[in-house]
Amino acid sequence: MRIPLQLAVIFAICVAGEFLHRIVGVPLPGNIIGMVLLLILLCSKIIKPEQISGVSSFFLNHLALFFLPPSIAIMAVGDEVLSKWPLLLFLCIAFTLITIAVGGRVTQLFIRKQEYRENLALRAERLADRASRNKANGGQQ
Q1: With 102 labelled, which of 3, 14, 79, 112 sits at a CA distance of 20 to 30 A?
Q2: Helix, strand, or coil (residue 116)
Q3: Both ends of the chain: CA-CA distance in Å?
């Protein structure tokens, strides 16, 4: 897909998220709903990653530019932010630790699941070897 068409697809998904938020009344911000819709479309293979890769790469390569408006807004209300810095510092540290802990747990679960699958495959292979050896020996052990 060409870049304008890819951009139109992303924009349409974003508009659909806003529609669901404003008209239907889904109690989530429209951009979050749009991201969930995009995830659903990608997981269900209705949209293939290659179909939006050009515009996605552009957005990811220029991601820092998207942080400028919120950063400037924070600077504009600097006195309020400075008055609450202990709370903000605590929240940043707390949520960083929570993110690290949850990420570690999820990683451990995936590793255990992979090891379990590998063990099952190894057992199945050993049983198949044993069965083929028994067949070759005429059913004797």
Answers
A1: 14
A2: helix
A3: 62
What sign results for the dihedral spanned by CA atoms 107, 108, 110, 114? positive
Question: Tens place of pLDDT for every residue, the chain, 141 residues?
Answer: 588 999 999 999 999 999 999 998 888 899 999 999 999 999 999 999 999 999 999 999 998 888 888 888 888 888 888 888 899 899 999 999 999 999 999 999 999 999 999 999 999 999 988 888 888 877 555
Helix ranges (DSSP H) in 44-84: 53-61, 63-66, 68-76, 78-83
* Structure token pair of residue 44: 């269900």
pTM higher than the cut 0.70: no
Beta-carbon contacts of residue 50 (< 8 Å; ≥ 6 apart): none
